Structure formats: structure tokens, C-alpha cells
Amino acid sequence: MFDFLDSGQYDLLGAFWVTVQLTLYSAVGSLIWGTLLAGMRVSPVPLMRAFGTAYVNLVRNTPLTVVIVACSLGLGQTLQITLGGDDFKTMGFRLAVLGLVAYTGTFVCESLRSGINTVPVGQAEAARALGLNFFQVLTLIILPQAFRSVVAPLANVLIALTKNTTVASAISVAEASALMKTMIENESSALFAVFAVFAFGFIVLTLPTGLILGWVSKRVAVKR
Amino acid sequence: MSATSVLYDTPGTRAKRRNIIYTIVFLVVFALAVWWVLAAMADKNQLAAEKWSPFVTDSEVWTTYLLPGLGETLRAAALSIVIALPFAALLGIGRLSDHVWVRVPAGVVVEFFRSIPVLLMMVFASQLYVQFTDVSSDLRPLYAVVTGLVLYNASVMAEIVRAGILSLPSGQTDAAKAIGMRKGQAMAYVLLPQAVTVMLPALVSQLVVIVKDTALGGAILALPELLSQNRTITANYGANTIAAFTVIALMYIALNFLLTTFAGWLEKRLRRGRKSTGAVLGPDDVQQASVPGRAPDASGA
To answer: Which terminus of chain B, N or C, has less C-beta within 10 A?
Structure first.
């Protein structure tokens, strides 16, 4: 039943490795972009606040598929923005990461913003009383505490991101779900086995992330 | 911290001046970015008026492509939520059962389907229909998309149902038992009706997730929904990719913004209600419910 695994015809681990790479690059990118957005949304400059709010509300309400396909067809093919990728494969991968970062950043931003709200008012007031300016209050006092309280929500975002990387197959990035589509059509006699293998792969990727980061979130939580 | 404005003092003269400088710097950076995008678009002839004008002057682009696409999106989303809801209720109540042989299978199903991407289920369902049924090939994408969405969203909403029931005060069950109700009666007449109110905002937010996921069907399984109209429009109206994507994205945004606003309004209204316990499941709980091994938790007022 599982003999398609031994045929050597399909690079199963390679496909899941692309999924992992997509997840890691997008996770780092969206953490940075999301933190910047959160910073803008709480900043004293009204224009930055407006931009942050508008960006989050627009992008969060757009389907990820639209974002990623627009990256590929709009940016890649129409405007010829290749992000330094010379061949079709690297270009598709980078555009997919760009789309995932643009989309996931909004969820990171919203998680962080609710984390900022859990920091007691006294912390910011004390910091201001010491004469720290907004940037210092945010980076030295508020964000370090906020990050510790949002490990669990960010883990949720990371798991959702892992599942969302499958959307990259819409612009033919050769990740796990793209391989599954090929295999399911070729190995039609082993339909359930193929599905089980890929489902198992994703469970292996998502379940430990949740468990480990859940443990971390308890360890680093600020005891109040 | 209730108001984020505690992060900074009320601006004085110097701070006001500094804020103006920041505003100008931000405006310049933003304008440069916009300029760069527009220049790139002009370079590839995407700003030409004839690429954008069909959306305003030609009603056919709406009646032939965009509105039927939107209709297909709505049809898939509506079918999915209507079919998924009863399954979600069964699975959610099943996970709360006193019987191990009901609780454990329901739990396994819910955890399994929430930990794998919805796209995998759509692709699998599509092939399943090819091999085992004689659904015609033009209906198959819709069937596959709806099946995938039902499997995934039934498990996610099962968690919302469970959290909604658990959020009710234990006095409700006690009172039901005291007047001689059986477990099933207490669930049907006392707990579920109240839980529905608690989880209404979360269910509306889940509808946003479903609408967004239908776009996958257009990209992977050739469901003729809104996103896939991009291909037909650019083929018929002269490669106006950027313009078509802008209009399509705006339509999705408008639809989802309406749903999000409605969910927010419901949540606020329910939190204010005197009769309820003040516990409401909102959009954040939806995100929590879509993650394997996590349970959403109705927050108090």
C-alpha cells in the first residue's frame, strides 16, 4: 500500500524541506514586519498610526491566495520584479515568501498589540517618569514584556503559517502540497495512503511546534 | 494597559515639532515607495487608461465575470458553513460527552482535521470524487472545495461550540438537573441555546476565514470563483493584470470588512447585554480554535 514511498520517484523529504524553508523565512520576515507594524500602530505620529491600521485591515481581509497569486502574476510576471532570483524556481520561492510575510505580518502585529495591552500601565508611566522617550519606552520596557506574554498567540500564528505555506503551490512552488497533488493523480490506487502520508507530515510539523512553544510560553510568562 | 497613549506624554512644543518631522520623513518614504511602484507600472504600461476604464465604463466586465465570480464564492462559502455547522455541533458536543468511546473519537477527528492544511483536504476530496463518484467535471471543483472546507471548518467550529458550552456557568447545568432534566435535555434546552449566543461573533468571524479559503479552490481546482476571474478578465481586456487584481482584492476586502464589522458589532452588543454572563467568543478565539492542541477560552466581560 505504501510502496510508492520506495519507488524513488518522488522526493518527499525534499518537498517537506521546501515547506519548512518557506515557513522559517516567512516566520522571521513576518516577525520583523509585524513588530514594525505594531510599533507604527501605537506610535505618537498620527500618520504612522493611520498607515498601520489601514494596512492591517486591508491585508488581513484579503485572501492569502490573492496576495500570493498577485505577487507572482502582478509583481513577478507583469512588473518583472524578480527579487534577485535568476531562475523561475528561486523567483517563485521568494515571491511566495514576500506574500506570506505581507499577510502573516498583520497577524503578528495584532497579537503583539494585544500583548502590549497586557503590560501594566505603571510600567509605561514609570518609564516615562524616568524621562525615556517613546522609542525607549517601547523597545526597553514595553516590547520585552509584551513579547514574553504573546509567545502562545505567536505560536498559533506560526502554526497557521506552516499550514498556509501550502498556498504557495498556487504559484507552482514545489512544496509538500504540490507534490501531493502530483502523487495523488499518479498513484490513484493509493489515494488514501498518499493523503495519510502528507497529513502525517503536517501533523509532525505543527503539533510539536504547538507543544514546545506552549511550554516556552509558560516558562517565559511574566508572573503577575 | 487600556489606552496605548500611556506610552507617550501629551506632546509639548518640542515633541510636536519632532512629530511633524517624523510625519514628513514617513510621508517622503511612503511617497517614494508609491512613486517606485507607479513608475514600475507605467514602465510596463499598466497605468494606461484603457486597462482600468473597463471596470468603470463597461458593465459587461461586472455582469459576465466579477459578479458571477462573487456569486460562486458566496455559494461555496454559504454551502460550507451550512453543512459544517451541524457537524461542528455534533463534534463539539461529542467532545464533552461522558462516554469515552464518543469523546475520544470526536477528539481525534477534530485534532486531525485542524492540524492539516485545508488545501490538502480539497485536493484529496477532488480525487476522491474522480475515483468513487460520477459527479460531472464542471461540478467537481465546487464539491471538492465544499468538502474540504466542511471537514476543516467543522473541526474548527467544533472547538468554538465546545468553548461556548464550557463558558456557561455551572449553575445552568445544576439547575437543569434539579428540575429533573436528563443530560440530553439539559444540552438541548438549556446549554446549546445559550452557547449559540456566546459563539455567534466567533461563527461570523469564521465565515471570513471560509470566504478567504474559497479562493484556494479558484487557484488550485479551477472553481470559477472571484479570484479565478482574474485570468478571464486579463485575457479579454488586454493584460490588465494589476487593475484586475486591484478590483478583485477590493471586492474581497469589502465583503470581509462587512463581515468583520458585523462580528465586532455582535460581540460588543452581546457583551453589553444584561442577561448574558458577559462571556463572548470573538475573532481571537477563532484563531485559537484553528490550531491543533489548543482550546479557545471565552473571556469574561
So the answer is: C
